[in-house]
């Protein structure tokens, strides 16, 4: 479709009742927040229709578990917003919409290895964030996380406030980071989640306002005032942590070990994750359907199918096809979708539409931003460059964790260090090892073809250890 805004500066648009759409290289980008990441198939088909009719037909999966509809025309903002509102994905105003940043375990309710089905808790938290006007002053990227453990755990996902299940009725609350890096605050009851969120949000706003340089994220506040100072304001809601905080590790391993022992099947639990298993969830994977009934353990129909996409991007046609092959779609923060109760031909449908169906697919090692056409500052086709690397640099990709193709030094797709980083400027690339976008590079000014060749020729030992 014709893009009337491609040459205009990146800015926020005005659209009542939805997070202000962002004007980028290919039009307006609309973020769709799906409570608990649960997207009914009929809603997925409707969203695909909206993307195709009013946008470019491209949909991105964000690391915050959202859908992003790309290329929305200016005159399409209102009808798309109203349609999303009818489906329950838009809050009453932009302020309440902006704070609904909640990640939920994507296998909640599907996974018998989890300690808790956290969908209800997540929806309660989402609703409180939208309703509590005191929380609407939180920074736009302030994020919350609710994890029930199991194979879909969110241990490696960062958040400003994280709630990790320790048993069937309690969470450990931690501040500012991943499960390993966040500062533990204490234990709290499931039924207190909304009240605790309000208290934490208010404590963050009050404490940051007292500082000469107010931090915008919880991790910065923890550094500035200490976790104990924050905890003082929540003493009536939080119980002390036990020695060594053993319960959280327990949440990620005990139930799976128990289930494995009872079933007689050898699941390697410690270190195992949905994205390490991937594909069809047949035995010994979880066999519980969304409504709680047992699925077959005889290999008949898997309870879900995990599908990923290069760079987290799919088309409206792909989303519609996937929605027609399952009962429900779960959105994950790993550039992947989970098809719940998939049809017998779901895997074939996904394969036909370019989905990644194996955790060994080399394209999963590649990260790339939108690049030229999708961003105002992009000067190269970052996706084409990355896919060319996937074709030519197989041995290298087998050995490294990530190759990042960035359209500029900002590094929106991955601002941190990668094993190999390509940074574009003026239509060419600089290639660096163990570097962030924009870092000093030994290989500069390479054309896209030469950059791909340079990466393909790298010695494996040069590019490990980032």
Radius of gyration: 22 Å
Largest sheet: 6 strands, antiparallel
Instruction: Find the structural class using helix and strand composition.
Output: alpha+beta
Total of DSSP H or I helical runs spanning 4+ residues: 14
Q: What best-fitting shape do the alpha-carbon axes yield?
A: globular
Give the strand content: 15-25%
Structure description:
The protein has 466 residues and is an alpha+beta fold. Helix content is 29%, strand content 21%. It is built from 14 helices and 21 strands. It has helices spanning 41-54, 77-86, 94-98, 119-131, 193-209, 218-225, 227-232, 246-263, 274-277, 316-323, 346-352, 382-392, 394-399, 448-457, and strands at residues 11-12, 22-24, 27-32, 38-40, 58-61, 67-72, 102-104, 144-147, 159-165, 170-177, 183-189, 279-280, 304-308, 313-315, 328-331, 336-340, 366-368, 403-406, 418-425, 428-435, 443-446. A hairpin with a 5-residue loop joins strand 10 and strand 11. Residues 1-19, 245-271 and 294-299 have low confidence and may be disordered.
